[in-house]
Amino acid sequence: MTYFFLLMDFASIEQKWQERWYNSRIYEARKEKGKKFFIHFAYPGISGYLHVGHMRGFTYADIIARYMRMNGYDVIFPAGFHATGLPAVSLAKKVARGDEDTI
User: Tens of pLDDT along 44-86?
Assistant: First the structure.
């Protein structure tokens, strides 16, 4: 049985698509006054753990963002982590006092 992925040159495939995305400037913001669309996904908080359910929710948001972009909208879909509130303060205090389990 031949495993097709052993025959693939992933480095050249990656380079091809990175060049195409760079040259098309698809992810650069434009100052045009077009249709705008904002979507956000609620990432896990600082005290939570990333699990497969987060990926499921993120996938839905990603599909919507891509769909809107294909339909001519200027889409902003920020990526990041939610790190506010009491859990963040509690974690900062544990790190400040040198809690080995946290660090």
Answer: 666 667 777 778 888 999 999 999 999 989 888 887 655 566 6
Residue 9 within a domain: no
Cα distance between residue 65 and residue 77, in whole Å: 7
Count of helices and strands (H, E) across the chain:
4, 2
Report how many domains make up the chain.
Answer: 1
CA quadruple 17, 21, 22, 28: dihedral, nearest 10: -160
Is residue 74 a part of any domain in this protein?
Answer: yes
Task: Read off the pTM.
Answer: 0.53
Three-class DSSP category at 10: helix
Range of the domain at 69: 32-103
Is 90 part of a structural domain of the chain? yes
Instruction: Please write the tens of the pLDDT for every residue from 8-46.
Output: 899 999 999 999 989 998 777 777 778 999 998 877 666
Phi-psi region of 66 (alpha: psi -120 to 50; beta: other; left: phi over 0): alpha
